[in-house]
Amino acid sequence: MLLARFSYTIIVEIVYDLGLQSGGVTSTTLDIAVIGAGPAGLLTALRMHQQGLRPTVYEVVPELKPLGVGVDIKTVGTAEIDDLGLLEEFRAISVDAEDSIFYNHFGQEIYAEKCGVHMGYLHEQRFVHRGTLQMLFYKVALERIGADAFRLGVGVTGYDQDETGVTLHLQHADGRTEHVRHDAAIAADGIKSAIRAQMFPEMAKPHFSGITMWRGTTLMEPFRGGHTILHIGDPNISSMIVYPIADDFEGTGKTLVNWVAETNGEETIEDWNQVGDISEVIPLFDTVKIPFLDVQQMMRDAREVYLFPLIRHDPLDNWVDGRVVLLGDAAHAMYPRGGNGITQAMLDARVVVQQLVEHPDDPHAAFVAYDAARREGVNRILMNMRGEGYEVIRRMVAERTNGQPFDDIEAVLPLAEADAIFSIYHALVGSPRPGHEAGEATGYRTEHALTSAKE
Ligand SMILES: Cc1cc2nc3c(=O)[nH]c(=O)nc-3n(C[C@H](O)[C@H](O)[C@H](O)COP(=O)(O)OP(=O)(O)OC[C@H]3O[C@@H](n4cnc5c(N)ncnc54)[C@H](O)[C@@H]3O)c2cc1C
Q: Domain of 144?
């Protein structure tokens, strides 16, 4: 059976152009609810504040905690963070991505390329802990908007609406219920969105892909200087992605390293916090010998391991119901590969708020315009994330070598052939990379490429 279809960064940046210019303060007095204080809801609240709108944010958990593991913020995501005036604070909690290296199931190098500004993009690609980033957004939102805009421990269970506004049905942590009125509502309530379930009950049934992820972090000495993402394995057996997400983590002097192992698995519930047992997966990486990293020891030394089934959420053909709109994972839950979900949510936030500014008296028109600007492109990414993208090179090498080690990578997958595959990706990228407008990839062999050949 075919396994994990990594696509990672594929076409994440192509819809950057769909984001509109920020700036300016609106005269609208719309009273808008944001449902969910995940990265998407918080970014939406910050964008609203930036444009002179005041949100009310409802969040079901009574206290926000830095949950999750690593996310890979693409150059367009860093641009969004920069535009909110948070670049330096973001840099302080994240790691600059410099190199991206691909290996077969024996730890032999297949391909390498530079990342972010190191390959000519105008913004950095950075790795960060999802929870740390969410807490940064929350801290800044409290400072800029004020604590009274946030109602924690209050879940939104559904809505009604008429020509003049939306009634949200609230469930408090203590069991109380309440009904509140707003001019409009933006639902950023994540993969299990109650609002999406009300809008599209027929889409609520999950479809397990057959692939399970084990997501973990390990506190360790940095490898390769601490700025490299590794893509390892034969996708017919198992795959792994490894990257650092924090230097000198909590003053320990060590690096927090994020890793994700994928293979076929049993269906489990779709829950970000489901604790996993990595011991059954470690033997799948018996053959992997990376010169500077013992991947099995890294997994054994995990601080935390979460099990996450890859569930297919089909793309929606509409995100809007009158004065209510979906955003972030609620609109386009996708496989959690390569930070595409979070990066797309950042773009959603900017565009929906810009449309509210442009339609100050008509939230429905604003939401329809946001849907038109964003949905199609994001749905393409969602579908692409189910495929392999440029990670296909690992499968090509496995097939060309019958799953055996090789003597000379140039004879198996020439650099020029791999470059052509990566160029397709870079050509799709919407953010500027001066001098490479046609998307030319610039792969290279690292110092380990020759020594990792078959011995
Ligand atoms: C606990 C957790 C851990 C995660 N870990 C990772 C990770 O390690 N790697 C990764 O790639 N992605 C992770 N994600 C998903 C990632 O955050 C999203 O893909 C991306 O950031 C888009 O964020 P979002 O705000 O749309 O969704 P989410 O981050 O899921 O945020 C949704 C928010 O809405 C709240 N909410 C849900 N239902 C309601 C309701 N009915 N009423 C009010 N509030 C509600 C949730 O508590 C949550 O705070 C995680 C999500 C969560 C919730």
A: 19-66+129-204+316-385
